[in-house]
Protein backbone atom coordinates (compact mmCIF):
# COMPACT_ATOMS: atom_id res chain seq x y z
CA UNK A 1 0.00 0.00 0.00
CA UNK A 2 2.77 2.45 0.91
CA UNK A 3 4.32 1.93 -2.53
CA UNK A 4 1.02 2.78 -4.26
CA UNK A 5 0.77 5.93 -2.15
CA UNK A 6 4.36 6.89 -3.02
CA UNK A 7 3.61 6.45 -6.75
CA UNK A 8 0.39 8.46 -6.40
CA UNK A 9 2.35 11.26 -4.68
CA UNK A 10 4.87 11.33 -7.52
CA UNK A 11 2.00 11.45 -10.04
CA UNK A 12 0.25 14.39 -8.37
CA UNK A 13 3.43 16.44 -7.86
CA UNK A 14 4.60 15.79 -11.45
CA UNK A 15 1.20 17.00 -12.68
CA UNK A 16 1.65 20.29 -10.80
CA UNK A 17 5.13 20.69 -12.30
CA UNK A 18 3.60 20.11 -15.76
CA UNK A 19 1.13 22.94 -15.21
CA UNK A 20 3.75 25.38 -13.93
CA UNK A 21 6.45 24.63 -16.47
CA UNK A 22 4.57 25.74 -19.58
CA UNK A 23 1.95 28.21 -18.39
CA UNK A 24 3.82 31.20 -19.84
CA UNK A 25 4.36 29.92 -23.41
CA UNK A 26 3.92 32.31 -26.35
CA UNK A 27 1.21 31.37 -28.84
CA UNK A 28 3.63 30.90 -31.76
CA UNK A 29 5.09 27.94 -29.88
CA UNK A 30 1.78 26.18 -29.18
CA UNK A 31 2.10 23.62 -31.97
CA UNK A 32 5.81 22.75 -31.43
CA UNK A 33 5.17 22.44 -27.71
CA UNK A 34 2.26 20.09 -28.35
CA UNK A 35 4.51 18.06 -30.63
CA UNK A 36 7.35 18.08 -28.09
CA UNK A 37 5.05 16.91 -25.30
CA UNK A 38 3.79 14.24 -27.72
CA UNK A 39 7.36 13.00 -28.15
CA UNK A 40 7.91 12.91 -24.37
CA UNK A 41 5.02 10.51 -23.84
CA UNK A 42 6.99 8.23 -26.16
CA UNK A 43 8.59 7.26 -22.82
CA UNK A 44 5.94 4.53 -22.96
CA UNK A 45 8.69 2.67 -24.86
CA UNK A 46 10.40 2.10 -21.50
CA UNK A 47 7.25 0.33 -20.32
CA UNK A 48 6.96 -1.64 -23.55
CA UNK A 49 10.57 -2.86 -23.17
CA UNK A 50 9.96 -3.85 -19.55
CA UNK A 51 6.83 -5.94 -20.27
CA UNK A 52 8.34 -7.57 -23.37
CA UNK A 53 11.58 -8.34 -21.55
CA UNK A 54 9.75 -10.00 -18.67
CA UNK A 55 7.24 -11.82 -20.92
CA UNK A 56 6.87 -15.54 -20.25
CA UNK A 57 4.27 -16.50 -22.85
CA UNK A 58 4.09 -16.12 -26.63
CA UNK A 59 0.94 -13.97 -26.52
CA UNK A 60 2.53 -11.44 -24.17
CA UNK A 61 5.62 -11.26 -26.39
CA UNK A 62 3.37 -10.50 -29.39
CA UNK A 63 1.43 -7.79 -27.53
CA UNK A 64 4.72 -6.41 -26.19
CA UNK A 65 6.29 -6.38 -29.65
CA UNK A 66 3.32 -4.43 -31.03
CA UNK A 67 3.65 -1.95 -28.14
CA UNK A 68 7.40 -1.57 -28.80
CA UNK A 69 6.82 -0.83 -32.51
CA UNK A 70 4.06 1.73 -31.81
CA UNK A 71 6.02 3.38 -28.99
CA UNK A 72 9.21 3.79 -31.06
CA UNK A 73 7.21 5.34 -33.91
CA UNK A 74 5.76 7.79 -31.37
CA UNK A 75 9.10 8.62 -29.77
CA UNK A 76 11.50 8.80 -32.73
CA UNK A 77 8.97 10.43 -35.07
CA UNK A 78 7.84 12.85 -32.36
CA UNK A 79 11.31 14.21 -31.61
CA UNK A 80 12.32 14.46 -35.28
CA UNK A 81 9.15 16.26 -36.36
CA UNK A 82 9.39 18.68 -33.41
CA UNK A 83 12.99 19.43 -34.36
CA UNK A 84 11.91 20.18 -37.93
CA UNK A 85 9.19 22.55 -36.69
CA UNK A 86 11.66 24.37 -34.44
CA UNK A 87 14.17 24.73 -37.26
CA UNK A 88 11.78 27.35 -38.63
CA UNK A 89 12.37 29.51 -35.56
CA UNK A 90 16.03 30.01 -36.45
CA UNK A 91 17.41 33.15 -38.11
CA UNK A 92 16.43 34.22 -41.65
CA UNK A 93 19.64 32.81 -43.18
CA UNK A 94 18.93 29.35 -41.91
CA UNK A 95 15.36 29.58 -43.14
CA UNK A 96 16.54 30.46 -46.66
CA UNK A 97 18.75 27.38 -46.68
CA UNK A 98 15.77 25.24 -45.73
CA UNK A 99 13.72 26.63 -48.62
CA UNK A 100 16.46 25.90 -51.14
CA UNK A 101 16.79 22.26 -50.14
CA UNK B 1 16.68 -1.90 -9.18
CA UNK B 2 19.49 -0.32 -7.26
CA UNK B 3 20.10 3.25 -6.18
CA UNK B 4 22.13 4.20 -9.26
CA UNK B 5 19.27 3.14 -11.54
CA UNK B 6 16.78 5.22 -9.55
CA UNK B 7 19.09 8.25 -9.64
CA UNK B 8 19.61 7.93 -13.40
CA UNK B 9 15.83 7.71 -13.94
CA UNK B 10 15.50 10.83 -11.80
CA UNK B 11 18.04 12.50 -14.09
CA UNK B 12 15.91 11.67 -17.15
CA UNK B 13 12.85 13.14 -15.41
CA UNK B 14 14.83 16.36 -14.83
CA UNK B 15 15.73 16.40 -18.55
CA UNK B 16 12.01 16.21 -19.45
CA UNK B 17 11.03 19.03 -17.10
CA UNK B 18 13.88 21.32 -18.21
CA UNK B 19 13.27 20.35 -21.83
CA UNK B 20 9.62 21.39 -21.63
CA UNK B 21 10.58 24.57 -19.81
CA UNK B 22 13.11 25.57 -22.51
CA UNK B 23 10.33 25.17 -25.09
CA UNK B 24 8.60 28.23 -23.64
CA UNK B 25 10.79 30.59 -25.67
CA UNK B 26 11.64 30.48 -29.40
CA UNK B 27 15.34 31.10 -28.67
CA UNK B 28 15.79 27.99 -26.55
CA UNK B 29 13.00 25.74 -27.86
CA UNK B 30 15.18 23.60 -30.09
CA UNK B 31 17.68 22.98 -27.31
CA UNK B 32 14.78 22.02 -25.05
CA UNK B 33 13.59 19.40 -27.49
CA UNK B 34 17.10 18.01 -27.82
CA UNK B 35 17.44 17.84 -24.04
CA UNK B 36 14.21 15.83 -23.81
CA UNK B 37 15.45 13.52 -26.57
CA UNK B 38 18.72 13.03 -24.69
CA UNK B 39 16.83 12.17 -21.50
CA UNK B 40 14.74 9.68 -23.47
CA UNK B 41 17.82 7.99 -24.93
CA UNK B 42 19.32 7.61 -21.44
CA UNK B 43 16.05 6.17 -20.09
CA UNK B 44 15.84 3.55 -22.84
CA UNK B 45 19.48 2.46 -22.69
CA UNK B 46 19.16 2.26 -18.90
CA UNK B 47 16.04 0.09 -19.12
CA UNK B 48 17.72 -2.34 -21.52
CA UNK B 49 20.88 -2.50 -19.38
CA UNK B 50 18.84 -3.23 -16.23
CA UNK B 51 16.93 -6.02 -18.03
CA UNK B 52 20.17 -7.65 -19.21
CA UNK B 53 21.88 -7.14 -15.87
CA UNK B 54 19.02 -8.78 -13.96
CA UNK B 55 19.13 -11.71 -16.38
CA UNK B 56 15.33 -11.46 -16.88
CA UNK B 57 15.37 -11.07 -20.63
CA UNK B 58 15.51 -14.19 -22.82
CA UNK B 59 17.42 -14.29 -26.09
CA UNK B 60 14.17 -14.51 -28.10
CA UNK B 61 12.70 -11.50 -26.34
CA UNK B 62 15.91 -9.54 -26.96
CA UNK B 63 15.77 -10.26 -30.71
CA UNK B 64 12.05 -9.42 -30.83
CA UNK B 65 12.75 -6.15 -29.01
CA UNK B 66 15.59 -5.15 -31.31
CA UNK B 67 13.63 -5.92 -34.48
CA UNK B 68 10.51 -4.13 -33.19
CA UNK B 69 12.45 -1.05 -32.12
CA UNK B 70 14.34 -0.88 -35.42
CA UNK B 71 11.10 -1.17 -37.43
CA UNK B 72 9.36 1.49 -35.34
CA UNK B 73 12.33 3.86 -35.39
CA UNK B 74 12.66 3.50 -39.16
CA UNK B 75 8.95 4.15 -39.77
CA UNK B 76 8.91 7.15 -37.41
CA UNK B 77 12.06 8.65 -38.89
CA UNK B 78 10.91 8.32 -42.51
CA UNK B 79 7.45 9.72 -41.73
CA UNK B 80 8.86 12.67 -39.77
CA UNK B 81 11.50 13.52 -42.39
CA UNK B 82 9.32 13.20 -45.48
CA UNK B 83 6.22 15.00 -44.21
CA UNK B 84 5.40 18.40 -45.72
CA UNK B 85 5.38 21.34 -43.28
CA UNK B 86 1.65 21.77 -43.84
CA UNK B 87 0.91 18.12 -43.04
CA UNK B 88 2.66 18.17 -39.66
CA UNK B 89 -0.44 18.44 -37.41
CA UNK B 90 -1.96 15.22 -38.75
CA UNK B 91 1.38 13.43 -38.36
CA UNK B 92 1.58 14.57 -34.72
CA UNK B 93 -1.95 13.22 -34.30
CA UNK B 94 -0.89 9.88 -35.81
CA UNK B 95 2.12 9.70 -33.47
CA UNK B 96 -0.25 10.48 -30.63
CA UNK B 97 -2.56 7.66 -31.72
CA UNK B 98 0.21 5.05 -31.72
CA UNK B 99 1.41 6.31 -28.31
CA UNK B 100 -2.09 5.83 -26.86
CA UNK B 101 -2.28 2.41 -28.50
CA UNK B 102 1.05 1.39 -26.98
CA UNK B 103 -0.13 2.51 -23.52
CA UNK B 104 -3.29 0.40 -23.83
CA UNK B 105 -1.28 -2.62 -25.06
CA UNK B 106 0.95 -2.47 -21.98
CA UNK B 107 -2.13 -2.86 -19.77
CA UNK B 108 -3.09 -5.89 -21.88
CA UNK B 109 0.39 -7.40 -21.59
CA UNK B 110 0.02 -7.12 -17.81
CA UNK B 111 -3.56 -8.44 -17.72
CA UNK B 112 -3.22 -11.33 -20.21
CA UNK B 113 -1.35 -13.87 -18.03
CA UNK B 114 -4.42 -13.58 -15.75
CA UNK B 115 -2.41 -14.41 -12.68
CA UNK B 116 -5.27 -14.25 -10.21
CA UNK B 117 -5.22 -11.96 -7.18
CA UNK B 118 -4.19 -8.78 -8.92
CA UNK B 119 -4.63 -6.09 -6.26
CA UNK B 120 -7.39 -3.55 -6.89
CA UNK B 121 -4.79 -0.80 -7.32
CA UNK B 122 -3.49 -2.72 -10.37
CA UNK B 123 -6.84 -3.67 -11.92
CA UNK B 124 -8.11 -0.10 -11.48
CA UNK B 125 -5.12 1.34 -13.32
CA UNK B 126 -5.41 -1.35 -16.04
CA UNK B 127 -9.04 -0.24 -16.49
CA UNK B 128 -8.11 3.46 -16.72
CA UNK B 129 -5.11 2.79 -18.97
CA UNK B 130 -7.17 0.74 -21.45
CA UNK B 131 -10.08 3.22 -21.36
CA UNK B 132 -7.99 6.37 -21.96
CA UNK B 133 -5.53 4.65 -24.30
CA UNK B 134 -8.24 3.19 -26.55
CA UNK B 135 -10.27 6.43 -26.70
CA UNK B 136 -7.18 8.46 -27.68
CA UNK B 137 -6.07 5.82 -30.20
CA UNK B 138 -9.27 5.89 -32.26
CA UNK B 139 -9.94 9.59 -31.58
CA UNK B 140 -6.48 10.64 -32.78
CA UNK B 141 -6.81 8.48 -35.90
CA UNK B 142 -10.09 10.24 -36.80
CA UNK B 143 -8.53 13.65 -36.01
CA UNK B 144 -5.58 12.87 -38.31
CA UNK B 145 -8.00 11.61 -40.97
CA UNK B 146 -9.99 14.85 -40.81
CA UNK B 147 -6.89 17.01 -41.24
CA UNK B 148 -5.59 14.81 -44.08
CA UNK B 149 -8.98 14.95 -45.81
CA UNK B 150 -9.56 11.20 -45.57
CA UNK B 151 -12.50 11.83 -43.24
CA UNK B 152 -14.72 14.85 -44.12
CA UNK B 153 -13.54 17.87 -42.13
CA UNK B 154 -17.04 19.22 -41.50
CA UNK B 155 -18.78 18.27 -38.25
CA UNK B 156 -20.33 14.84 -38.79
CA UNK B 157 -23.44 14.19 -36.73
CA UNK B 158 -26.26 11.72 -37.05
CA UNK B 159 -29.55 11.19 -35.29
CA UNK B 160 -29.14 9.30 -32.04
CA UNK B 161 -25.40 9.93 -31.78
CA UNK B 162 -25.70 11.40 -28.27
CA UNK B 163 -27.73 8.52 -26.76
CA UNK B 164 -25.46 5.98 -28.49
CA UNK B 165 -22.39 7.72 -27.08
CA UNK B 166 -23.90 7.75 -23.61
CA UNK B 167 -24.80 4.05 -23.88
CA UNK B 168 -21.27 3.15 -24.99
CA UNK B 169 -19.69 5.25 -22.23
CA UNK B 170 -21.93 3.49 -19.69
CA UNK B 171 -20.97 0.09 -21.15
CA UNK B 172 -17.28 0.97 -20.85
CA UNK B 173 -17.79 2.18 -17.28
CA UNK B 174 -19.70 -0.92 -16.16
CA UNK B 175 -17.24 -3.27 -17.88
CA UNK B 176 -14.38 -1.36 -16.27
CA UNK B 177 -15.90 -1.57 -12.80
CA UNK B 178 -16.59 -5.30 -13.25
CA UNK B 179 -12.97 -5.83 -14.30
CA UNK B 180 -11.59 -3.69 -11.46
CA UNK B 181 -13.53 -5.59 -8.80
CA UNK B 182 -12.36 -8.88 -10.27
CA UNK B 183 -15.88 -10.08 -11.17
CA UNK B 184 -15.34 -10.08 -14.92
CA UNK B 185 -12.14 -11.37 -16.43
CA UNK B 186 -10.50 -10.68 -19.77
CA UNK B 187 -13.93 -10.72 -21.49
CA UNK B 188 -14.99 -7.52 -19.75
CA UNK B 189 -11.64 -5.96 -20.57
CA UNK B 190 -12.28 -6.77 -24.25
CA UNK B 191 -15.77 -5.25 -24.04
CA UNK B 192 -14.29 -2.14 -22.42
CA UNK B 193 -11.73 -1.83 -25.23
CA UNK B 194 -14.37 -2.15 -27.96
CA UNK B 195 -16.69 0.41 -26.36
CA UNK B 196 -13.81 2.85 -25.73
CA UNK B 197 -12.62 2.60 -29.35
CA UNK B 198 -16.10 3.49 -30.67
CA UNK B 199 -16.46 6.34 -28.12
CA UNK B 200 -13.19 7.81 -29.41
CA UNK B 201 -14.52 7.80 -32.98
CA UNK B 202 -17.95 9.20 -32.07
CA UNK B 203 -16.42 11.94 -29.89
CA UNK B 204 -14.15 13.24 -32.65
CA UNK B 205 -16.50 12.98 -35.66
CA UNK B 206 -18.81 15.90 -34.66
CA UNK B 207 -15.88 18.30 -34.21
CA UNK B 208 -15.07 20.60 -37.12
CA UNK B 209 -11.69 20.59 -38.88
CA UNK B 210 -10.85 24.13 -37.72
CA UNK B 211 -10.95 22.99 -34.10
CA UNK B 212 -8.75 19.96 -34.71
CA UNK B 213 -5.46 21.39 -33.32
CA UNK B 214 -7.15 21.98 -29.96
CA UNK B 215 -8.64 18.48 -30.03
CA UNK B 216 -5.28 16.93 -30.90
CA UNK B 217 -3.74 18.79 -27.96
CA UNK B 218 -6.50 17.44 -25.71
CA UNK B 219 -5.94 13.88 -26.98
CA UNK B 220 -2.21 14.42 -26.44
CA UNK B 221 -2.90 15.25 -22.79
CA UNK B 222 -5.06 12.10 -22.58
CA UNK B 223 -2.23 9.94 -23.92
CA UNK B 224 0.06 11.44 -21.29
CA UNK B 225 -2.44 10.38 -18.62
CA UNK B 226 -2.72 6.89 -20.17
CA UNK B 227 1.08 6.60 -20.06
CA UNK B 228 1.04 7.56 -16.37
CA UNK B 229 -1.61 4.87 -15.76
CA UNK B 230 0.59 2.33 -17.57
CA UNK B 231 3.34 3.44 -15.18
CA UNK B 232 1.09 2.55 -12.23
CA UNK B 233 0.28 -0.85 -13.79
CA UNK B 234 3.91 -1.91 -14.10
CA UNK B 235 5.20 0.20 -11.18
CA UNK B 236 7.56 2.36 -13.23
CA UNK B 237 8.31 5.87 -11.96
CA UNK B 238 9.73 7.37 -15.21
CA UNK B 239 6.43 6.53 -16.95
CA UNK B 240 4.40 8.10 -14.13
CA UNK B 241 6.50 11.28 -14.03
CA UNK B 242 6.67 11.83 -17.81
CA UNK B 243 3.01 10.84 -18.24
CA UNK B 244 1.74 13.18 -15.51
CA UNK B 245 3.98 15.95 -16.85
CA UNK B 246 2.61 15.63 -20.39
CA UNK B 247 -0.94 15.12 -19.13
CA UNK B 248 -0.90 18.34 -17.11
CA UNK B 249 1.16 20.41 -19.58
CA UNK B 250 -1.05 19.17 -22.42
CA UNK B 251 -4.18 20.09 -20.47
CA UNK B 252 -2.99 23.65 -19.84
CA UNK B 253 -1.78 23.95 -23.44
CA UNK B 254 -5.22 22.84 -24.67
CA UNK B 255 -6.82 25.60 -22.61
CA UNK B 256 -4.30 28.20 -23.90
CA UNK B 257 -4.95 27.12 -27.50
CA UNK B 258 -8.71 27.34 -27.05
CA UNK B 259 -8.35 30.83 -25.54
CA UNK B 260 -6.06 31.91 -28.42
CA UNK B 261 -8.83 30.84 -30.84
CA UNK B 262 -11.41 32.69 -28.76
CA UNK B 263 -13.35 29.47 -28.19
CA UNK B 264 -14.38 27.71 -25.03
CA UNK B 265 -13.17 24.16 -24.62
CA UNK B 266 -16.67 22.94 -23.79
CA UNK B 267 -18.00 24.39 -27.06
CA UNK B 268 -15.30 22.62 -29.03
CA UNK B 269 -15.90 19.23 -27.40
CA UNK B 270 -19.66 19.53 -27.83
CA UNK B 271 -18.92 20.09 -31.52
CA UNK B 272 -21.25 20.47 -34.45
CA UNK B 273 -21.91 24.19 -34.12
CA UNK B 274 -20.14 27.55 -34.10
CA UNK B 275 -17.08 25.96 -35.65
CA UNK B 276 -16.72 28.33 -38.60
CA UNK B 277 -16.79 25.28 -40.86
CA UNK B 278 -20.47 25.69 -41.50
CA UNK B 279 -20.11 28.75 -43.70
CA UNK B 280 -17.47 27.04 -45.81
UniProtKB/TrEMBL annotation, chain A:
The keyword Transmembrane helix applies. Its main location: membrane. One of its GO terms (molecular function) is NADP binding. Pfam families: PNTB_4TM. It is found in: Cell inner membrane. Its EC number is 7.1.1.1. It is a multi-pass membrane protein. GO terms for cellular component: plasma membrane. The chain crosses the membrane at residues 6-23, 35-52, 58-81. GO terms for biological process: NADPH regeneration. Keywords: Cell inner membrane, Cell membrane, Membrane, NAD, NADP, Translocase, Transmembrane, Transmembrane helix. It catalyses: NAD(+) + NADPH + H(+)(in) = NADH + NADP(+) + H(+)(out). Residues 8-90 form the NAD(P) transhydrogenase alpha subunit C-terminal domain. The transhydrogenation between NADH and NADP is coupled to respiration and ATP hydrolysis and functions as a proton pump across the membrane. PANTHER family: NAD(P) TRANSHYDROGENASE (PTHR10160), PROTON-TRANSLOCATING NAD(P)(+) TRANSHYDROGENASE (PTHR10160:SF19). This is proton-translocating NAD(P)(+) transhydrogenase. It comes from Kribbella soli.
